[in-house]
Amino acid sequence: MKAIGISRYGDASVLQYWEVPVPQPGPGEALVKVHYAGVNFMDVHTRQGKYATSSTYPVRLPVTLGMEGAGEVVDCGLGVSDVAVGDRVAWCLSWGSYAEYALVPVTRLALVPDDLGLDVAAASIFQGCTAHYLVHDVAKLRAGMTCLVHAASGAIGQLLIQMAKREGVRVLATTSSEAKANVARSRGAEAVFTYDHFADDVLAATDGCGADVTFDSRGAPTLRGSFCATRTRGLVVSYGSVAGSVGDLDPIELGESGSLFLTRPRLADYIAGREELQRRADVVFAGLLAGSWEVSLSGEFTLETVARGLSDLESRRQIGKAVVKIIEG
After folding, report:
1. Which member of 90, 157, 196, 249 has the lowest number of beta carbons within 10 Å of its beta carbon?
2. Which domain holds residue 80?
3. Looking at the predicted structure, is the pLDDT value of residue 294 above 60?
4. 133 in any annotated domain
5. 322 vs 182: which has the higher pLDDT
């Protein structure tokens, strides 16, 4: 089968287009014929080596890329009873979806409703489950609260806005351009600011109080500003560092900023078992089918396109909003 992977870390030039045997499922695994693979920052981070020593995401070389996908189960290993051959499934945080077939632990598989496209499932399970646990488990948003969403036109940012609004939460947002601001507004953001003076803008919009919760996926350029934009004893949720990591944070800064709470959660700890994953996926998929929220697919690539060296710039424009189509039909 054809697959895309890496045997060393680096830029897009390290991508390899492999011809490898179709794997055989072991105990607790299913073999899935991949229809679509999602495109995510984690794919770029994997290639760059950011998980080389991670215990949460123990991805080691050599590895087939792609941590999110959707397809059809074609074989099951010993002891598998939660899924069966022919089931339509989606998964995330299991590497190997940039291939014609993927071995996926059953604990990472969620059943997909028959009336939901596998392309949408592949592009929504990671972002959707992430937004769901951030809103409901980490931030515990409820009516009357105000939250700030950075990178609000991104895939997760859009879902955070939509899920927060559904809970009756006032949403403020940041983006880097007016076009992106319009996307955030279309999803329900009440006010959208640029990154230049966003903390002052948030304070002005909240009568000097600040947001109850700030969702920060950017990291170094915004995290300290997020402290300033969050109310006393508020919560800052740092769930990514796509614009750079913060390596010099002194906890006293949280006290100086108003006795803030800071957390850096990861999805893996909030889909600890298959039941929890399926529960979150059911909410996400049902919301998409009902029109409660929307995931927009902005691009569709082929394995061959990715193998030729999809540049970081091109990838970042499509992160979370595109899929790699593995098979026709």
Report:
1. 196
2. 2-126+272-325
3. yes
4. no
5. 182
